[in-house]
């Protein structure tokens, strides 16, 4: 089967650059949106040039220029968007509504993967303020995609390992401590951590797979379903030393959260749902068609469900 041509939007981002790499590695003709609005951001420009050296094609286009998006979309079969959606960096999820309009007008796209890659927003209808904005905005985009009749796959990638594991699941830390760790509650809620390069590889693997068409794809590596205590144990074994442990209760966590700025509060809300409520691992994936696929890649099991 001929491999789809892919357009990656947000290609210089934290996840986007990995999607470009994975798409090229898996032999797809890969296009990356080059936004003139990048201006003199030398790091982005150099990254784009390095993509080009690796075989990607750069295509000019801007969210402020509808026709440029339509023209870019017309070059390919599949569009993957990895636009920003983390408030402490930038949150532009709703800009994708412009992309949905362009894809609808172009009319040639076989699959659109919007910027999701986290907790399944469809399961977060009772999420707390202010962090629920992430899920609400992603649901607005989903509705627009489905209303426009655009074929899609939603990738629920759970926790990016870099953000969560690096700091032993302590908000605000991305490097592990060597002496002391603060457990969120009893530290026993299970979460799911996925390496960002794996997220990109699985995302690209799914684009030509008819089994994932119009479905949500959950990335749930069985060995990566861990509680905070289990994460800490792995680190303790590595450094040959036990960490001193304290814990922060749910009430203290929420009270402290309220003293933070808006962007921090959004992130902390997500930690709350993951680490105190166990929102990622406290449900079984419903497989209406009883289909379980295993891609043998770092022993990850991928489960599909109908949306
Ligand atoms: P980044 O913050 O790295 O930004 C990605 C890209 O968004 C940028 O490189 C840029 O693309 C584009 N962008 C930013 N602002 C604008 C704008 N004003 N106009 C047009 N384009 C813009 O994104 P992440 O990689 O951190 O996030 C990608 C997705 O992953 C999001 O949906 C996010 O919610 C999710 N995520 C999930 C996590 C988890 O733990 N599950 C953790 C982090 C993110 P360009 O290349 O064109 O400049």
UniProtKB/TrEMBL annotation:
UniProt keyword annotations, A-Z: NADP, Oxidoreductase
CDD domains: PCBER_SDR_a
Biological process per Gene Ontology, one example term: (+)-pinoresinol catabolic process
Superkingdom of source: Eukaryota
InterPro entries: NAD(P)-bd_dom_sf, NmrA-like, NmrA-type/Isoflavone_red_sf, PCBER-like
Domain NmrA-like: 2-274
A Pfam cross-reference name: NmrA
Gene3D superfamilies tied to this protein: NAD(P)-binding Rossmann-like Domain, UDP-galactose 4-epimerase, domain 1
Tagged with keyword Protease: no
Membrane-crossing segments per the record: none
Similarity annotation: Belongs to the NmrA-type oxidoreductase family. Isoflavone reductase subfamily.
Subunit annotation: Dimer.
Name of the protein in question: (+)-lariciresinol reductase
Species annotation: Vitis rotundifolia (Muscadine grape)
């Amino acid at each position: 089967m001929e491999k789809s041509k892919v357009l990656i939007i947000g290609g210089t981002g934290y996840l986007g650059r990995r999607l470009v790499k994975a798409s090229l590695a898996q032999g797809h003709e890969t296009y990356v949106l080059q936004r003139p609005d990048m201006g003199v951001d030398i790091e982005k420009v150099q990254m784009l040039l390095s993509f080009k050296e690796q075989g990607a094609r750069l295509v000019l286009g801007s969210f402020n220029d509808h026709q440029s998006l339509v023209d870019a979309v017309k070059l390919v079969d599949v569009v993957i968007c990895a636009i920003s959606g983390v408030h402490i960096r930038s949150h532009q999820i709703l800009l994708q509504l412009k992309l949905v309009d362009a894809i609808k007008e172009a009319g040639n796209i076989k699959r659109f993967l919007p910027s999701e890659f986290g907790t399944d927003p469809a399961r977060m209808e009772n999420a707390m303020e202010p962090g629920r904005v992430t899920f609400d905005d992603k649901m607005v985009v989903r509705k627009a995609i489905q209303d426009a009749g655009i074929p899609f796959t939603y990738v629920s990638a759970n926790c990016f390992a870099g953000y969560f594991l690096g700091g032993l699941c302590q908000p605000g830390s991305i490097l592990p401590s060597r002496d002391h760790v603060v457990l969120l509650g009893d530290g026993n809620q299970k979460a799911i951590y996925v390496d960002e390069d794996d997220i990109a590889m699985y995302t690209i693997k799914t684009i030509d797979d008819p089994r994932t068409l119009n479905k949500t794809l959950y990335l749930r590596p069985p060995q990566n379903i861990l509680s905070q205590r289990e994460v800490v144990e792995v680190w303790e074994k590595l450094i040959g030393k036990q960490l001193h442990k304290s814990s922060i209760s749910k009430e203290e966590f929420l009270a402290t959260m309220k003293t933070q700025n808006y962007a921090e509060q959004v992130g902390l809300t997500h930690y709350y749902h993951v680490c105190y409520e166990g929102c990622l691992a406290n449900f079984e994936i419903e497989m209406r068609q009883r289909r379980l696929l295993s891609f043998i890649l770092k022993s990850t099991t991928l489960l599909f469900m109908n949306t």
